[in-house]
Amino acid sequence: MGDAKLYTRVKASDILTELKNYEKKPRSGVYQKTILKKIIVNLSIGDNEVIILASDVVRILFNMGYEDLEVKNMCYLYLITYWKHCPKEAISALPFMVEDYKRNSDTSVIDACAALKTIASIQLKAYIDALTPLLEDAFNDSNASIRRTAAYCVAMIFRSNEVENPGSSPKLLQMLNDALVDDDLDVVAAALNSLGDITLNTDKLKLSTDKEHALKLTEGMASCQEWCQVSILNALLTFVPQDHKIAADLIDLILPYLQSDNSSIALNALKVIVYFSYYINNVLDVFPSLPQSISAAISNLMLRPPEVQFLAMRNVILLLLDKPALLDLDIRMFFCQYDDLLYIKDTKLEIIFLLANEGNMDLVLAELQEYAMEIDIQMVRKSIRAIGNLAVKIEPTSEKCVSVLADLLSESIPYVIEEIAIITRDILRKYPGTFDYLIDMLVDRVSLIKESDAKTSIIWILGEYSSSISKSVTLLKQFSETFVEESTETQLTLLTAIMKAHTCQPYNKELHALVEDILEVTIVDIDNPDLRERGLFYWRLLSSGLPNIIDIIKPRLPTLKNDQAALPDHVREELDLCMGSIASIYLRPVKQVFRHCKPRTLSDSPALVRQDLSNSRLSNPLYNDRRSTLYRSRSSTLSSNSGSFRSRMAFTSQRVNDLTRNENNEPSPAENNSESHGLSGIMRKLSLKK
C-alpha cells in the first residue's frame, strides 16, 4: 500500500480488527507496520480513539522494534503522546527502552539518544527512577552526542523528579555542573541551556557565570553549531561584569555575530550587547560605530521571511522606546511594500511613527499620503491616524500634517472622512483655534459619516464648539432623530454634546426643546441604566439652578502635551533582557505573558551604569496620552464626559464647590494610577489591533 493511501481517518475498532486478521498470516510484520502507520496518521490528525490500541502498539514494539528502526520510532512517538492516558502500557514498554539504550550506546549513537529522549519525555515515577542511572552512564560516555542528549534530558525530567524524588535533584544538578567543564563546547552549551531552563522556572535556583568561563565560552563560540551558539549567548546574560573593561571586551567579541545568517543568533547577540551596555560608562564613546552595526543587523533581518521581520521590528520598537541612541536607521527601510502582510504593514507604520521627525517629515507625509489613497481600507484608516498623530506629536510640522488631512478630506471618501473626524478632535485640543477650518470641512461632509466611532467624534466636536458652528443645532437635532438606534457610546456623547450646546446658548429655544426631548427619551424610553442615570443627573443639575453650571457640564479642557514619560526602570530593563522572545513581541513583562516564568533583572555590580540613551528627536506622545497614539482603541476616542455614569455618581454627591478641584490642578484619584496600570496603557498603544 502506498503511503498516500494511509492518510485517511480510520476508526480504532477497524484498525484493531485489521490487526487481528493479519496476525496469523505470513509476512504479518509487513502488515503490522502498515497498520502502525495508520495509527500514527490518526494520532497526527488528533483522533484520540487510537488510545485503546496502546497494548497492541507495545506488543508490536517488542516484536519488531529491535530489527526495524522505523517501527521503533513510531512506537516511541505513540508512547510519548499518550503515556498519560495509558500509564500501565507505558510502564510495560520501559524495559525495551532501557535495553535499547544499553544495546546501542556503543554501536548506534542515534538509537541510544532516541531511547534516552523517549524515557525522559515520559514523566512517570518508574521512568524517572530508571533514567537516573542511565544519565550517570551517559554523562561518562565517550561520545559527545550522548553526553549532550543527557544534559537536555535532565531539564526535561527535573520538575517531575523534584516531586517524585526530591533527594535526587541535587545529584542531577551536579551532573549538569560537571558537564560545564566538558571538553566539547556543544556539551557545555547543552548543559548551560538546561541549567538556564531549570533556573528560569525555579525560584530557588540561580545560574551565574564567572569571568573566565564567560570569556572562554565567547571565544569558543565559533567552533560550535549554530543552536549551541544561541545557548551560549543566552548563558552570557548570567555573567555580571565587575568592571567596564570586561563588558567592553565581551561586546567586542559578540559584535560579529550580529551579521550571522541565523536570525536567532543575530537577535540574541543584539540582546547580549544591550545587556552589557548597562555595564559600560558611555557605551557610545567606547563603540562609536555601535549604532551602525546594530542598524546593519536589522537591515539584514528585514530581508528574512515575514515572521522574522515581525520579530525584529517588535524589538526595534522596544529599542526606539528605550534606547534610540543605539540605532541609526534609515526610515525608508520600513516603508511598506505592496506584497507585505497586514501585520507587517501595521508594525512598519508604528516604526515610521516613532522615527518621524522634523528632518524627514516631508518624506514621511508623502509616503503616508500614498498609503491613504490605497484600496485597502484598513491601511487607509491607519495611515490617516498616523498623519493625525504626527500632527499632535511634532508641533513645528503640524501645519504640513493638517494640510495633508485637508487634501484627503476634499476627496469626500466616506471612510477617509470618518477617520479624519476621529483624529481631528485631538488636533483641535492640541492646537486650540489654529485649525478650526477642519471643523467647517467636516461639517460640510457630515452626511457621509456612518461609523459609530466617527459619529461619536463629530458629535463631540459639535458640542464642544457649538457656539462657532452655525449648523451645530441643526446637526445635533439630526443625530437625535436616530438616538435610540445608536450605540451606547454615541448616545452618551450625543446627550453630553446637547447639554454642552444648551449651556453655551441658554436662550436658544430650539436647543431648549431639544434638551427636553432628549432627556425625556433618555429617562423614559431607554433601558440602559448608565444612560438613564446620566439623563437623570443632567435633569437634576438643570433643575438646581446653579450659577456655575457651565463649569460643570462644559469645563475648560486641558491642552494635549507631548511631555515624554519613560517606562519604569525595572520594566525597561526586563524588556531589554527579553529581546527576541515572545515577551518582546507583546512588549510586556514576562510575568504578564508566562505566569510561572521568573522575570530577569539586572544584577548589582560596581560597573552597573543606568545611563540615558534616549534621543530628543523621539519625543513621542506614546508615553503620556492615550489619545495621541497610533493604534489606540477606538473606544478611547470618547471624551471624558462620555464615560459611564456609574463612574461619576460619587462626583454628583459632592458639594458643588468641590467641582472646581480640577481647575486648581489637584490630582484626581484616577491620576494616581499604579505602575502596572500605566504600563498596561503604554502596551495597549502598541498593539496590532486598530
UniProtKB/TrEMBL annotation:
Domain of life: Eukaryota
Record's compositionally biased regions (Low complexity): 665-676
Statement: the UniProt record of this protein carries the keyword Membrane: yes
Predominant cellular place of this UniProt entry's protein: membrane
Swiss-Prot/TrEMBL keywords: Membrane, Protein transport, Transport
Clathrin/coatomer adaptor adaptin-like N-terminal domain location: 15-544
Cellular compartment(s): Endomembrane system
InterPro entries, per the entry: AP_beta, AP_complex_bsu_1_2_4, ARM-like, ARM-type_fold, Clathrin/coatomer_adapt-like_N
Region (Disordered): 660-690
Pfam families: Adaptin_N (PF01602)
Gene3D superfamilies the UniProt entry points to: Leucine-rich Repeat Variant
GO BP: any one term: intracellular protein transport
Keyword presence, Transport: yes
GO cellular component: endomembrane system; membrane coat
GO molecular function, one term: clathrin binding
Free-text function comment from the UniProt entry: Adaptins are components of the adaptor complexes which link clathrin to receptors in coated vesicles. Clathrin-associated protein complexes are believed to interact with the cytoplasmic tails of membrane proteins, leading to their selection and concentration.
PANTHER family the record matches: ADAPTOR COMPLEX SUBUNIT BETA FAMILY MEMBER (PTHR11134)
Entry's family note: Belongs to the adaptor complexes large subunit family.
Name of protein: AP complex subunit beta
